[in-house]
Design goal:
heterodimer; A: mainly alpha; 15 helices; 0% strand; globular; B: alpha/beta; OB fold (Dihydrolipoamide Acetyltransferase, E2P); Ubiquitin-like (UB roll); 4 domains; 6-stranded mixed beta sheet; 16 strands
């Protein structure tokens, strides 16, 4: 009698082949158009920031898993994604210590202390960015960051300019075409609107990102800014300026869609996206911040568990027993 | 194995397999020298068994483990009982297995045991429970269960299998005859029959209401048939039998008709065997044939760390031995090469929501699995719809974090049953 040692396990015996690695790899691939454009636009310093950010994020995760005696998990690329996204949101002139502090805050405070992947209630990248932005406001001032650069377009951060001078005064400085093609001052990976859209559409088509969130997010931005613009066009910028400047598109496709801090049911996703867009515009137009994307999405992360309780009734629940 | 498509904007669609339009005769596996029969009756060392090692049995003889046993099996051959021992399944439930050594001389000389079949369900239940296709006669004969509808399934519930469809294509007359027998022996008045929507059935079926079922998994699972065709939503935690509906495979109906015609039991089970490259083979084998014999017939080599799946890829179970026998309800056997076995993980849920979108029962599987991982089975059932699960396995199929969600659900249901039984 031949007795082979067979694998015995539980159904289902098939899998569609997805894994955390492919998910995170695709997130990074989708970010590539914007990243490459940023490298071309801002040169070697941008490469330095991105490389340091990505690698330090992975090192932080590795160190924490080592210290806490857990299985190393950096091979799922989750911290690489956090590092890359954080780097993309920084100006090319960010000092090295700020990058490392940022990835520490993002990976350790934002993710690892909650228990690692899947357990973070807030988007880790945004936790890092929020603390950096509150701590070193001047270093994240894009107008100040690029004084030594020589651009062939208006070297003013659009949202800051709108905030300072009103929409009417700056209306000729930022043609839509320039904004979309990345001819604006901003963070390394968030200025190239077209590239971000291409990446986002790629993620949606491949099913790595739920389409409801970015679509509702963009509707929220456009609708709210349109209302403001309608009331006072001299003061409040038109929808397209809001959409193609600052972190808006990056937020729509890459930040708001972070799995563990966003809802999964359809109606909650639509509410989540729309409200995020709405809050961001309220911050920009009424609040003190030029770009409310970071804090706006964090705020919605906070209410995510609450709104995600809106869900369809499961099969056979609440049926009258015949 | 069906992998995710490159573009995945919509949820994946897993299609049922269809048999070739004019199916060939299945390959008959010769009766092996040793047959293994399972008896759903645990062995008790303290008691003296009714059947003993060395007993001679005739073909078609009913075998009880103890004198007062309710469970029985039928010997498909004439021979000698060689082994009586304990078998335990994947949930640790114990039953008994018998090895019967085929006596070639006896087989040739003697006729099958003839049964005195009367037109009552009790009489059918007395002899025909282990017919190929495993007719649910025990349920039908139980006076505590009121069955008013029988659904005959000509559509295979799980993927890859085409056994039910083959029976429907080849033996529609037998199915009609079987419905006639069922009408005679039971009080059930309503008969329904599920037929895949792309299957060509030449003749009219007037004895039963025809349901044309979708070719996309999980449309042929009992709960989905109730929902889609009988407009009946199964309350959470109930079985179709609780609602008075009994499911019966096409093969069971055909073998019931044959048994009533010949007054003997038939023992040849039709099965779909899927080789390592995904090649389907159709086979008839005597119940009790070890799977190894079938693999030998098709030169399928089973190596270490391969996986043998009995039943479909979504709902079946895997066995630890190539000597596992063909049973009355074994429709499909799949050999999975070790390189094709997907790896599972102990990652936590990342909340990507794929399971929530694919779940046909609208269960929040992302939250449910967190409760199940923590062992909070009662909360899982009360708040996150554990008992609504129709056990299709799609959640674990799509899981990005590769969590065995379906396994957690099965375990949760099992533990909950045990808790409630102890209480």
């Amino acid at each position: 009698m031949n007795n082979n040692k067979l694998i015995v396990s539980h159904a289902p015996f098939w899998h569609d082949g997805d894994s955390l690695f492919t998910l995170n790899l695709n997130l990074m691939i989708a970010a590539l158009p914007a990243v490459i454009f940023g490298l071309v636009q801002f040169g070697m310093p941008a490469l330095g920031v991105l490389a340091l950010s990505l690698s330090s994020a992975m090192v932080w995760e590795y160190v924490i898993t080592l210290l806490s005696g857990k299985k190393a998990s950096i091979h799922d690329l989750d911290s690489a994604v956090i590092g890359l996204f954080l780097g993309m949101m920084l100006p090319a002139t960010a000092p090295w210590w700020m990058v490392i502090t940022g990835t520490f805050l993002a990976v350790v405070i934002g993710k690892m202390i909650f228990g690692g992947i899947g357990a973070n209630p807030f988007n880790p990248t945004l936790i890092g960015m929020a603390i950096l932005a509150l701590s070193w406001t001047t270093l994240l001032d894009f107008d100040a960051a690029y004084v030594n650069y020589d651009f062939d377009f208006t070297a003013l951060a659009p949202l800051a300019a709108v905030k300072a001078k009103g929409a009417l005064a700056v209306s000729d400085l930022f043609p839509l075409n320039d904004l979309m093609m990345g001819k604006q001052v901003g963070a390394i990976g968030t200025t190239f609107g077209l590239g971000l859209i291409i990446g986002g559409v790629y993620l949606i088509l491949r099913g790595f990102v739920r389409w409801e969130i970015p679509v509702a997010f963009i509707i929220g931005i456009v609708f709210t800014s349109f209302c403001f613009n309608l009331v006072n066009p001299d003061k409040y910028a038109a929808p397209m300026i809001h959409l193609f400047s600052g972190y808006t598109l990056f937020g729509a496709f890459f930040l708001a869609t972070e799995n563990s801090s966003s809802p999964v049911n359809r109606i909650p996703m639509l509410i989540f996206g729309f409200c995020a867009g709405l809050i961001i515009l309220l911050m920009r137009n009424i609040g003190v911040y030029e770009d409310g994307t970071v804090l706006g999405i964090l705020l919605l992360n906070l209410v995510n568990p609450l709104i995600d309780t809106i869900r369809p009734k499961a099969l056979g629940k609440g049926v009258n027993h015949a | 194995m069906i992998k995710r498509s490159f573009f995945a904007l919509t949820r994946p669609r897993l299609g049922y397999d269809t048999p070739e339009p004019d199916p060939k005769e299945p390959k008959a596996i010769p009766v092996p020298s040793n047959l293994i029969l399972l008896l759903h009756d645990p062995l008790d060392d303290a008691r003296e068994t009714f059947i003993k090692k060395g007993d001679k049995v005739e073909k078609g003889r009913k075998l009880h483990l103890y004198k007062d046993s309710k469970e029985y099996t039928i010997s498909p051959v004439a021979g000698t009982i060689k082994v009586i021992d304990t078998y335990s399944d994947d949930f640790g439930n114990t039953s008994t297995y018998l090895v019967i050594n085929t006596d070639q001389g006896l087989t040739a000389g003697t006729d099958d045991v003839k049964y005195e079949l009367k037109d009552t369900i009790a009489s059918a239940d007395e002899y025909l429970r282990t017919l190929p296709g495993a007719p649910p006669l025990k349920t039908l004969a139980d006076p505590d269960i009121k069955i008013d509808t029988i659904v005959i399934t000509c559509a295979d519930p799980d993927l890859l299998s085409t056994t039910h469809q083959y029976m429907a294509l080849k033996f529609m007359d037998g199915i009609k005859e079987g419905i006639g027998v069922l009408k005679r022996i039971t009080n059930v008045r309503k008969f329904c029959i599920t037929i895949p929507e792309n299957m060509n059935i030449k003749d009219e079926i007037d004895l039963a209401q025809v349901f044309r079922t979708s070719m996309i998994y999980p449309a042929n699972l009992p709960q989905m048939i109730l929902k889609d065709h009988l407009n009946m939503v199964l309350p959470a935690g109930k079985t179709p039998e609780d609602m008075g509906i009994c499911f019966m495979s096409a093969e069971a109906v055909v073998s019931l008709a044959r048994a009533y015609k010949t007054k003997t039991a038939c023992h040849e089970k039709v099965l779909t065997v899927i080789g390592k490259q995904g090649t389907p083979y159709r086979v008839t084998a005597v119940i009790g044939t070890p799977l190894r014999r079938i693999f030998n017939a098709f030169s399928i080599h089973v190596n270490d760390h391969d996986r043998l799946v009995i039943g479909g890829p979504m709902k079946g179970f895997s066995t630890y031995t190539v000597h596992h026998p063909v049973q009355p309800d074994t429709d499909t056997v799949i050999v999975q090469d070790r390189d094709n076995i997907p790896e599972l993980s102990d990652n936590p849920c990342v909340n990507c929501g794929k399971c929530v979108r694919i779940c046909p029962a609208y269960i929040p599987a992302n939250i449910l699995v967190r409760y199940l991982e923590a062992g909070l089975y009662q909360d899982a059932a009360d708040r996150y719809d554990l008992l609504s699960c129709i056990e299709c396995g799609l959640c674990a199929y799509v899981c990005t974090a590769r969590i065995p969600i379906y396994q957690y659900i099965r375990l949760g249901k099992h533990e909950l049953l045990k808790l409630n039984a102890d209480a």
